[in-house]
TrEMBL record:
The lineage of its organism: Bacteria, Pseudomonadati, Pseudomonadota, Betaproteobacteria, Burkholderiales. Keywords: Signal. This is Cytochrome c domain-containing protein. Residues 1-20 form the signal peptide. It comes from the Bacteria. InterPro entries: Cyt_c-like_dom_sf.
Length: 105
């Protein structure tokens, strides 16, 4: 996990924009294929998107979003490459969070 996390942080720190080097279609595909179902089950309402928009959410910055995606990848053994993690984070940010390219907490 540490290598993937460090790589993700390095890429984000050196990109001009959150979306500059990401593939939003890939991020959406991964979210729908590997994340949505788990999140739908976790919320108990059958809607995987609710986890991103809930009022008691844990994600309050783009850095935290990237860390959460990396944690899910590692803990659930999703076998995503670092660039896939970046794509998922960028897609989720564009779709739900709307954070600026800011790595601060």
């Amino acid at each position: 996990m540490h290598k993937a996390l460090l790589f993700t942080l390095f890429i984000s720190a050196h990109s001009a924009s959150i979306y500059a080097s990401t593939d939003l279609d890939n991020g959406r595909s991964i979210d729908q294929g590997q994340c949505y179902g788990c999140h739908a089950q976790k919320t108990g309402f059958g809607n995987g998107d609710m986890i991103y928009t809930r009022s008691d959410g844990k994600v309050h910055s783009y850095l935290k979003l990237k860390l959460m995606v990396a944690a899910c990848n590692s803990q659930l053994r999703l076998d995503l490459f670092p660039e896939d993690e970046a794509d998922v984070a960028a897609y989720l940010n564009k779709q739900f969070y709307k954070f600026k390219n800011d790595n601060s907490e």
